[in-house]
Amino acid sequence: MRISLILIATLAVFMAPNFFRASWEGTAEAEIAEAESEPRLVAAMFRSSWCSACRVIEPRIEDVRAEYEDAAIDWVKFDFTLGRRDHLAELAEAEGLSTIYSDAAGSTGFMLLIDRDTNQVFEMITMDYGRDQIRDALDRWLVVVERLEAEGV
Fold first, then answer.
1. Is the separation of the CB atoms in 76 and 97 below 8 Å?
2. SS3 of the chain
3. Which of 2, 14, 103, 105 lies 20 to 30 Å (CA to CA) from residue 89?
4. Given pLDDT bands bounded at 50, 70 and 90, which one contains residue 29?
5. CA dihedral defined by 103, 85, 30, 125, rounded to 10 degrees?
6. Residue 26: exposed, middle, or buried by beta-carbon count in 10 A (0-12, 13-18, 19+)?
7. pLDDT band, very low/low/confident/very high, at 111 (cuts 50, 70, 90)
8. Which of 118, 120, 127 is nearest to 46 (CA)?
9. pLDDT tens per residue across span 35-84
């Protein structure tokens, strides 16, 4: 009995923060409905409540994301936590990211910066990136996407 209580308490400590972080939360159906008119640059987070790397990278991304609310970036979250992954394939298809989702499905702890039109992965942001490096990556790829759109590519 004592071991069970210790196990439950340990799980609660490690998993509780993920249930209270709701800034990217929403129903997959609502995200699918909005996907058709989204920007070309996609920031796709692959995460789960059990992922330790996610606990490192998500607060950094959240801090930086607040500065890019008006930028032409589509923020997509693929949450592989049990009970939340039912509609992820449909979300990926609606976002035009089926191939990338298939290649990365089940992997967590990173964010991909993707060109929606070509499905090219520009950069993989991992827990090794600090907030400044995340900002630099977003700025760099926003400029690239603007140039591609200006050239009609």
1. yes
2. CHHHHHHHHHHHHHHHHHHHCCCCCCCHHHHHHHHHHCCCEEEEEEECCCCHHHHHHHHHHHHHHHHHCCCCEEEEEEECCCCCCCCHHHHHHHHCCHHHHHHHCCCCCEEEEEECCCCEEEEEECCCCCHHHHHHHHHHHHHHHHHHHHHCC
3. 14
4. low
5. -50
6. exposed
7. very high
8. 127
9. 445 688 999 999 999 999 999 999 999 999 999 988 999 999 999 888 77
pLDDT at 144 over 80: yes
